Amino acid sequence: MVSGFAVPTASGLRPESDGPPGAVALARALRGVGGSAFVLCDPPSAPLFVALGEEPEVADWEPGDPAAARLLGGRALSHVVAVERPGRTAAGDYRSMRGAKLEAAALDELLLAAEAAGVERGAIGDGGNEAGLAGLLGEGLSLDPRCATVVGADWALGAGVSNWAAYALVAAMGRLAGADLLPCEEEARADHEAILAAGAVDGVLGEPVLSVDGQPWEETAGLLAAARAAMIGAP
Questions:
Q1: Which pTM value belongs to this model?
Q2: 153 secondary structure, DSSP code
Q3: Is residue 21 part of a domain?
Q4: Which CATH number belongs to the domain containing residue 35 in this structure?
Q5: How many domains does the chain have?
Q6: pLDDT tens digit string along 127-159?
């Protein structure tokens, strides 16, 4: 899982709360069905993953850094999945969904290395500026055309909040596995509170509040309940 998205705030660059909980939910679900997974993030987001009980790989790559190919070559990976991670634009920079330039490590290099190595690439995002979402601009995911990423994936999921798409994917995995792999509302809320204590902010509001991208916690709780009902109720 490649995740972590830092946004500019009045108090400086801060990691946002959208992305890490979804990435960790996917990693936990994979382990729950006998697989393995690890998280790759950049330094600003590392404390969030530690707060979620993960020991992430931390990198601060530049575009073209060969370390991505070395990391890929050193592990027998079946998939690389980006969850709310900045993807470079045609101009070679990274931007918010409103077009503002961002300071971001080039972790999308791992998706490019995966493409070259024939490793399946997945992506989850909500703005069209996230790694893996190339070609999705105009599908209701973007506020500014300058933000569009050129880094693609073999499959992509879009949602109003990236964590929600990750939870939906976990629900689908559970449907196939015949197991409930989703976190309960209490677990998901505890995860959110843990990353807030570790420095996360709402990416839209820029504040350490119990909401994601301006959406109150009740929306996430409702999504989890609906995803669980759909999974358990599926024929």
A1: 0.95
A2: -
A3: yes
A4: 3.90.1640.20
A5: 1
A6: 889 999 998 866 666 667 888 999 999 999 989
